Amino acid sequence: MNDKKKFYITTPIYYPSASPHIGHLYTTVACDAIARFKRMQGCDVMFLTGTDEHGQKIEQKAKEANVTPKQYVDEIAEKFRRLWKYVNVDYDRFIRTTDDYHEESVKKIYKTLLDKGYLYKSEYKGKYCTPCESFWTESQLDSEGKCPECHRDVKEATEEAYFFKLSAFSERLEKLLTETDYVQPEWRAKELVNNFIKPGLEDVCVSRTSFSWGVRLPFDEKHIAYVWIDALSNYITALGYENGKYDDFKDFWPADVHMVAKDIMRFHALIWPAMLMALDLPLPKKLSVHGYINFNGIKMSKSIGNVVDPFVLGERYGVDAIRYHILREMPFGSDSDYSNEIMINRINSDLANDLGNLVSRTVAMAVKYFDGTLPSEREEGEFDADLKAMAESLAPAVEKYIDETKLSPALTEIMTVVSRANKYIDETAPWILAKDPAKTARLASVLYNLLDTIRICSALLLPFMPSMMPKALEQIGAGENDVKYENLSKFGVLSENVTVKKGDVLFPRLDVETEIEYLNSVIAPKKDGYKEDEDLDKANVISIDRFAEVKLRTAEVKACEKVAKSKKLLKLQLDDGRSGRQIVSGIAQWYKPEELVGKKIVFVANLAPAKLCGEVSEGMVLSCDCGDDVRLLTVDNEVPNGSTVR
Ligand code: ME8
Predict the structure, then answer these.
(1) Each residue of 280-290: pLDDT tens digit?
(2) pLDDT in tens, 333-387
(3) Biggest alpha carbon–alpha carbon distance for the chain
(4) Helices H, strands E: what count in the chain?
(5) For the chain, which terminal residue's Cβ has fewer other Cβ atoms within 10 angstroms, N or C?
(6) Which atom of ligand 1 is nearest to the CA of 20?
(7) Judging by DSSP bridges, how do beta strands 220-225 and 216-217 pair with one another?
(8) Which of 13, 25, 27, 270 to mutate to test the pocket of ligand 1 (most atoms within 8 A of CB)?
């Protein structure tokens, strides 16, 4: 019997996307690094990824492309497999929601939910966002009545539908979010409780009749399963739950980690646990929620043309550098900003200067002073103890971070030891020791200590950079036993007379200017990304006289507070250089009230006053759409309040 510790980790299953970008890459590479680390620790790992292939949007896209939905998704699923292979993602299982065995299980899941009384037939009247395939209630729409996720138009939908009794799980879900550490980071759990549970959980519409690309409900064939119920089920159907394809459910469920980005947190933190509760199944142990990788502060989007193509980056800098970069830059739980400059500087500083240099200098010195093979003599000296202690305590520290799915601090920890080793070279100055034959034993000790530190660091970096780290380990003469996990918290494991082997430079130093010029030419936002907007602008020209009717003025925010009874509105008190005025603005999602006080803003001064949630608003503040984010238009502090903007 296999009595290894089981470890089950999942990525979201991806929507067919014609051009997966480095944002998509993040979740999967992060899971891959964790899965590799767990395998290194000796766990029996199940790492699942796949594609989410049903739904109205896909049906529409296939139609536009003049192919069947199946042909369309077949091609895209292949694209994802190619991408994962290219970036060295070593998954154990790839599920497609169009796989027969998955569809069979989804039907059974629906039937069980019905039999247990958690599904009921009713009529759905509500707002549906086709791009997000999400139903929203009136109160969830954004301030302009659009989809709160993508801010596009929603449409009124009325149809016969089945509903899942999510409301029945309200108390248990609240407990899950407040009394356990299921959702990580914790502040995300608070967000969910405040935004969804406290206002009252509503039942979810879980079937559609207006399209056909999906799983048909076995008890009512004109109904198609809601894509999210279909998709979330993948985490158990892929193990063989309610199907004969696999027999891994008893070994691997509950999952150790589901990793997702913030946009799909609510499905995984509310609907998914409620489904499992309804099915009487154990709940997953952890939902690790990360932020977005934005491009220069703006969400990556195909229409803006700022999507960063992993193939382009990988070809030029190597896949490991890209893996390292995205994992190192993403802070736990919040967004990270991609920019060409940050990436080039990160590769240069951490990989070329610190790590690459440490390996090449150490190996070069071992070759130069000892012909590549260290002698047996040793002499301990100053600085050794500090380096050894740091190296020995590294693996437990990294392990703790991996268990918390905090990959950036794990990498920082390793790179701190790499920097310490570089400092050790400066402190011990091997080139001076080499000049004195009486110091041979000391020189051998110094080089050995460096090589053994590199062994520990490179082995711990293997899960993050699986193609370059074996090369580093080969250069320092490390063998199989030297990289065993249990040997990574011990110093002095490399053979006493280790033989190094000079190799290629691991991470060549990049010329910042050349690279930025190159990257700007291939992945900077393209002007034609705004083509749709441009066309609309041209079709909707107005005369200068009409524009002059709008009076724009500057003001300073003196006080700001939330509007009671509204999740979206903030009430701003402005110094407008006159008698002052109050404006109510739908920006609560993007700003905390205290962040606005002191800002100089631009507002429309001659807009007819309106009442919003019982508060009078005398005008409108101007703001900019930045992808999913909204930023207020601000002006220089020197501009007096009440100045005319023209
Ligand atoms: O949501 N930065 O699929 P998806 C970081 N099919 N992560 C990003 C990102 C970015 N810029 N852009 C996308 C789905 N992602 C569903 C999942 S699971 C049962 C069903 C992340 O292809 C995104 O948030 O739209 C999600 O976690 C993942 O990529 C897949 O997104």
Answers:
(1) 999 999 999 99
(2) 788 888 889 999 999 999 999 999 999 999 999 999 999 999 999 999 999 999 9
(3) 90
(4) 25, 26
(5) N
(6) 22
(7) antiparallel
(8) 27
